[in-house]
Amino acid sequence: MTEDLTPAEAYAAARARNAEQATALAPFREMYDFGLDPFQIEACQALEAGKGVLVAAPTGSGKTIVGEFAVHLALLQGRKCFYTTPIKALSNQKYADLVRRYGHAKVGLLTGDNSVNGDAPIIVMTTEVLRNMLYAGSQALSGLGYVVMDEVHYLSDRFRGAVWEEVIIHLPESVTLVSLSATVSNAEEFGDWLDTVRGDTEVIVSESRPVPLWQHVLAGRRMYDLFEEETDHGGRGATRREVNPDLLRLARTENSRTYNPRERRRGKMVREADRERERRARSRIWTPGRPEVIERLDAEGLLPAITFIFSRAGCESAVQQCLYAGLRLNDDEARRRVREIVEERTASIPREDLHVLGYYEWLEGLERGIAAHHAGMLPTFKEVVEELFVRGLVKAVFATETLALGINMPARTVILEKLVKWNGEQHADITPGEYTQLTGRAGRRGIDVEGHAVVLWQRGMDPGHLAGLAGTRTYPLRSSFKPSYNMAVNLVDQFGRHRSRELLETSFAQFQADRSVVGISRQVQKNEEGLQGYRDGMTCHLGDFEEYARLRRDLKDRETELAKQGAAQRRAQAAASLERLKPGDVIHVPTGKFAGLALVLDPGVPAGRTNGHRGFEHHDGPRPLVLTAERQVKRLASIDFPVPVEPLERMRIPRSFNPRSPQSRRDLASALRSKAGHINPERHHKQRSAAADDRQIARLRTEIRAHPCHGCDEREDHARWAERYHRLQRDTRQLERRIEGRTNTIARTFDRIVALLTELDYLRDDQVTDDGKRLARLYGELDLLASECLREGVWEGLNPAELAACVSALVFEARQSDDAVAPKLPTGRAKAALGEMVRIWGRLDALEEEFKLHQAEGVGQREPDLGFAWAAYQWASDKGLDEVLREAEMPAGDFVRWCKQVIDVLGQIAAAAPRENSTVAKNARKAVDSLLRGVVAYSSVG
To answer: Which conformational region is residue 62 in: left (phi greater than 0), alpha (psi within -120 to 50 degrees), or beta?
Structure first.
């Protein structure tokens, strides 16, 4: 209250108000009908003061307002602002937002697919577009004042993350960088790096969500709170979050219940419905079905909701389940509005394609307020789902985790069916960072008082583990930066090799590696101090005890080496004896669980060869299948034969013998005991030790006995100190090797890339050759392969459709590798060109091996994937969508995305291909026109 202020305080407050009114922030704040949060104000003030900013805040907290303030400042100052996003869908969304505020004349869009008003002062673009502009020295960079990097935590992405670092490193010093990130646990470290490469950078971290989030577990008919808020009555009045004891009790009860499968009727298959009833009978709770969950949330006023299902097929299945259950979330008026919007947005799709795209089933779900959202959907369909959800006309969306990556689709409730997902290699628990990202969608600012995250109960669930996911905010930002061939030629062309190397040393990857070295260096220093103490402890007055200890160590190492050689020799002899076995041989198994008399039924096969059973291979030598005297049929391993084995007798195995028949096993085992039960196996005589005749051991023993320290009374005390010294010295050397391995790692990789490019004549010292300049215009995972194909004329003479098929192999990667089925390919010239591409890749792969460039480290060329060649060829040959999708066995969304990527690379090839005596550039442009039709042309998102 102003009347409570002293005159001096009132004067100071008035001055502060006047000073704020004079800033650019004051009129900007008036553009919003809500007040800005403290972290937004702090970041905007830092920007206006001329600093760069890193803003790390939870999803939905409004950090994009800081990016919009950068746009506001750029327009006030008569400068440009580039607003970059990681995905085209986000670029389209942000473009629409900025157009609504500033009008079409001031806002442009560049996404690779779309180029709208490229000379505007505000341009929204994908990060790759800005990277390409920087390398090309584009005139559009003139007058650039601000760059906003939305979702900057994408630099952790192992496939695309390097692009973010390239942009940050190469932006002109005069450009102010605005980095917007999800909540990361090492924001200060990232901020320190930005401070190093970009100058004065303010780090603003906000942990608080604008809408409180409540965590629940839905089990059977009951919704449990995950946490129980307990007030700390120790005087501070703070709250402590404890796991709900009711939930812990439930987990203990349910997980202690055991189910005996013998209770089921033997020999009969139980139908799915029977199994469900049986499961519910065993348990007083169950995992609710998808329609049941939506109905429950609808009844409690917790819609709209997003259910995350880590499977595209699961998302589509969920929608069908809700439709079959008769679920309707929209009234007649909402259904009418949905149909109007859908028909308007899809008017450009040819009617003959609607059935192929599953349009009518999709529309039925939308009219009922239910939809799926995943990368396999047609981009237009995804955009419609997003629009209807934001308008409140779709109330239940079943989505894969890709929806969590920045798209503005907040909900009141987020549901997680499971806490496990397929990561491309195995089923793995989701991380705290992923949990935070997914549940961050819950709670709409300005609409909801609170958001809700609901995890469905699963048998075996650990509430403590779930609480750990929900309560941990560890999402560290880890650089995935690696130099590439394209990056190398572009850097050398602009800066020369030496300066390029220095630039790469400034990457966040090297910054993190160097920081990790600090702790190791401290340990090395401690170890060196300890080594001095151990050296003092082993000092002997009779002579050099370090030398004496080395002799003893050499003796021990030699004895160990000979012992290993002896063991290897015995294993080889045993393996050789197993290879000589034949069906019908009676042997004595020397050790193991099945030691004793045995009859060889199948001698096994050498390593790497298949024994006739599909998928069964021996990788550790012969593995004989035997019948023991105790009637067991077992396949033994080499570990059961530490010594060679020789047949004791021979027996005929009846043709009628069936190893699965107990009677058959009993009869043959009885015959085995009768035939050879009285034979005692020969004892294996231990061979003379190799150490007894080894000259090196004899020499070392002589030197040890002759050494002065051998006669010391305290010899063994000194020896113990010497052993400690040796172990610590070995550990210290390992640490030093780790330091060496982490220091200058990026620069060393760059040196190897440059050496390979020099070998292929793309570089000559600091000069980029004509072939190198061509490579500089080719961006992509297989940039070098594309350049080699252009250089060797592999694509000359191909028509546009054939060229599209070949180029598809440079971009396509199957979601699941299927080596068993060879992909269908176009015949003739296209097939020959694809074969030549694989041959060139093989040569490059061998060259990368020679120069120690490994794909496992994120550097190098993967093998071209021919799985999309036939689909690209068919579509470019004007075949119908129905035929192409049916033969490709691919969802429409995937088909469109791969076509867009092929179009993108074809555009690069058209720009990079030779102009004289070549048809490639012309046919690449024609191929773009052939592909850019129908479903591909009217999809605005790539």
So the answer is: left
User: Mean pLDDT, to the nearest integer, of 578-603?
Assistant: 88
Residue pointed to by tokens 């803003």:
55
CA–CA separation, 157 and 160 (whole Å)? 6
For residue 267, give the 3-state DSSP assignment.
Answer: coil
Please list, in sequence order, all residues whose beta carbon lies within 8 angstroms of the beta carbon of residue 19, skipping any fewer than 6 positions away. Answer: none
User: Locate tokens 């440079």: which residue?
Assistant: 810
What is the spatial distance between Cα 326 and Cα 334, in angstroms, rounded to a whole number? Answer: 17
Q: Is the pLDDT of residue 40 over 70?
A: yes
DSSP per position, 828-878: THHHHHHHHHHHHHHHHHHHHHHTT--GGGT-S-PPPP-TTHHHHHHHHTT
DSSP code string of 585-598: EEEEE-SSTT-EEE
Answer yes or no: are the C-beta atoms of 149 and 56 closer than 8 Å.
no
User: Which token pair is 483?
Assistant: 């130099």
Preceding omega of 654 cis (within 30 degrees of 0): no
Helix (H, G, I), strand (E, B), or coil: what is residue 125?
strand
Mind listing the pLDDT tens digit for each residue in 228-243?
764 443 333 344 568 8
- Picking from 825, 791, 786, 824, the residue whose alpha carbon sits closest to that of residue 906 is 786
pLDDT on residue 54: 92
Sign of torsion over alpha carbons 738, 740, 745, 748: negative
Specify whether the CB–CB gap between 622 and 635 falls below 8 A. Answer: no
In contact, 910 and 924? CB cutoff 8 Å: yes
- 3-state secondary structure (DSSP) of residue 596: strand
Strands 420-422 and 427-429, by their bridges, are antiparallel
Q: Report in angstroms the alpha-carbon separations of 763 from 649, 753, 789, 790, 846.
A: 71, 10, 18, 17, 20
Q: How far apart are CA 184 and CA 151, in angstroms?
A: 11
Residues 6+ apart with CB under 8 A from 777: 908, 911, 912
Distance (Å, whole) CA 82 – CA 99? 14
d(CA 866, CA 838): 9
% of the chain exceeding 70 in pLDDT:
86
pLDDT given at position 1: 45
Note the pLDDT tens digit of each residue in 624-666.
Answer: 899 998 888 888 888 888 888 888 889 899 888 888 888 988 9
**Per-residue pLDDT tens over the stretch 463-491:** 887 877 777 665 677 888 888 899 899 98
HSE at residue 195, side-chain half, CA atoms within 13 A, is 10
Query: What is the tens place of the pLDDT at every residue in 127-144?
Result: 888 888 888 888 888 899
Give CA–CA dist 646/573, Å, rounded.
11
pTM score: 0.69
Residues 397 and 409 sit within 8 Å (Cβ to Cβ): yes
Tokens of 848: 């990368």
Bridge partners of residue 213, in order along the sequence: 451
Q: What does pLDDT average to over the chain?
A: 81
